[in-house]
Predict the structure.
Amino acid sequence: MNGMMQAAVESCPGCGLKLPPTEGATHAYVLSSPGCWALYSEVLAREYSDPAYMAVHRLTVDAYAVQHPGVPERRSIQSVNVHLVGLHLVLDRGADGAFARHVIGAMTQKLTDRLTWLDPPADHAALTVRDVIEARDAADHGKRVRDWAAAVWASWRPHHSRVSALADEAIRRM
Ligand SMILES: [Zn+2]
């Protein structure tokens, strides 16, 4: 065993998750460490392979995107805004994933000029994609994704009223 190797960790620039350093792919503007992206990819693979896991897919995608906001540029500004609206619609208004997708579609088609950079939370949410990867079954997966998404949404509290107003505007223009 090599003690120095074991001690090495890499912090995810988005969620703060500390993992052993790895090589690998990351996303162009949903900025994460390769290790965190690999965990997310594993969660997505589970969801795409089983409808019972897929039931919470909207929350998974939205939570991961806003927990990895990246830097201010056109694509990340749009990403953070639409995925925050997705979290708001599902968690606060009880919308289903299909409705949230339609609202997000209206945002990307008609509201892009209204979207601005929202400063990410100073403190990371306590839960990350690693809490989801440990799920025992589909029911546990659903609960863990909901808890994670709620923690991430809560961490963006200073922007909640702005996000709610954006959702209303998008719904009016659907
Ligand atoms: Zn991360």
